[in-house]
Design goal:
Blueprint: E1 11-14, H1 20-28, E2 35-38, H2 41-50, E3 55-62, E4 66-67, H3 69-77, E5 81-89, E6 93-96, E7 107-110, H4 112-117, H5 119-123, E8 129-132, H6 136-146, E9 151-155, H7 157-163, E10 166-169, E11 179-186, E12 197-203, H8 210-219, E13 225-232, E14 240-247, H9 253-265, E15 268-275
Helix pairs in contact: 6-7
Length: 284
């Protein structure tokens, strides 16, 4: 973990310099002077919840592989607040040493998401040994440190530039329009003027049609649901909580009414944040 200091707030970022999380952080914040990088989601979320870091940046959803369940669970468990988001286009490359050729490769390092998103490419090389690593950028750093022509990493172009690697095979992800959504978390609510996205956690009654009626409150108030993730409730077999992202501001009458209806009809409701949606959406 590294920490550099200039600005009045502190940032926590999953991964390492040159990672997609790092790119999301730099897009969101004008000044990223005081940054600490974390290898594990829980360490980052705990640091934000305790006030050690003012804001944290971590991935929560990918357009190819879906939601990252651990992140949803941690943000809820540590009662962090969502205060922003960013979408970053993910373009995975196979990276190796400057002197390496594709025929030299025997082992590949990457984050599990990197492997999952490049499954079709990796199927063509069943002889390679795959090593899961903390993040895609750190995988590139590991290959650079090993100084072995037989080692490669799946990571982004920015990681290649940072660690002095070359691109052996470009754009190897199966989905060529592959995006990851990153959330910005804090221990306090968002103070932004423009709040047009709402994230809630609900637990419904365990009866037929319960979730249907919950979603109906959003439909009748013209609130667009952008994501729905179900998570098992610890200690309660086959019962689930639902993490829901919808458009809307609690400053608007319709959104506030929908939340009040949910409070009356759900066993549990927690607002994780009302915050500005990503500026420009899914830009490259």
């Amino acid at each position: 973990m590294t920490d550099n200091g200039r600005n009045p707030y502190t940032l926590g970022c999953f991964g390492a310099p040159g990672s997609y999380s790092d790119a999301a952080m730099r897009r969101h914040f004008n000044d990223v002077g005081r940054v600490m990088y974390y290898d594990h989601f829980e360490d980052l979320v705990r640091a934000v919840a305790s006030g050690e870091r003012t804001y944290g940046v971590l991935p929560v959803e990918n357009s190819s592989t879906g939601g990252i369940a651990e992140v949803y669970d941690l943000v809820w468990r540590y009662e962090c607040r969502l205060v922003g988001e960013e979408y970053i286009r993910v373009q995975h490359q196979l990276l190796g040493l400057k002197e390496a050729a594709l025929s030299d490769i025997e082992e590949v390092y990457s984050h599990p998401q990197g492997f999952a998103q490049c499954y079709d490419f990796l199927r063509k090389h069943p002889e390679w040994r795959l090593h899961t690593y903390f993040s895609t950028a750190q995988s590139a750093g590991e290959v650079a440190a090993k100084r072995s022509k037989t080692a490669a990493a799946i990571a982004g172009e920015q990681a290649a530039e940072l660690y002095g690697l070359k691109i052996l095979v470009p754009d190897i992800a199966a989905n060529k329009t592959n995006y990851t959504r990153f959330i910005i978390i804090s221990a306090a609510d968002c103070a932004a003027v423009r709040k047009d996205k709402l994230t809630v956690v609900v637990i419904t009654e365990h009866v037929p049609g319960a979730l249907y009626h919950v979603l109906g409150h959003f439909f009748h108030r013209h609130m667009n649901m952008t994501h729905l993730e179900s998570r098992p409730i610890p200690g309660r077999p086959f019962e689930y909580s639902f993490h829901i992202d919808v458009t809307g501001s609690l400053d608007e009458v319709g959104t506030a009414e929908a939340v009040e209806e949910l409070k009356r009809h759900c066993k549990y409701l927690k607002i994780l944040g009302n915050y500005p949606s990503a500026k420009g959406g899914m830009v490259t």
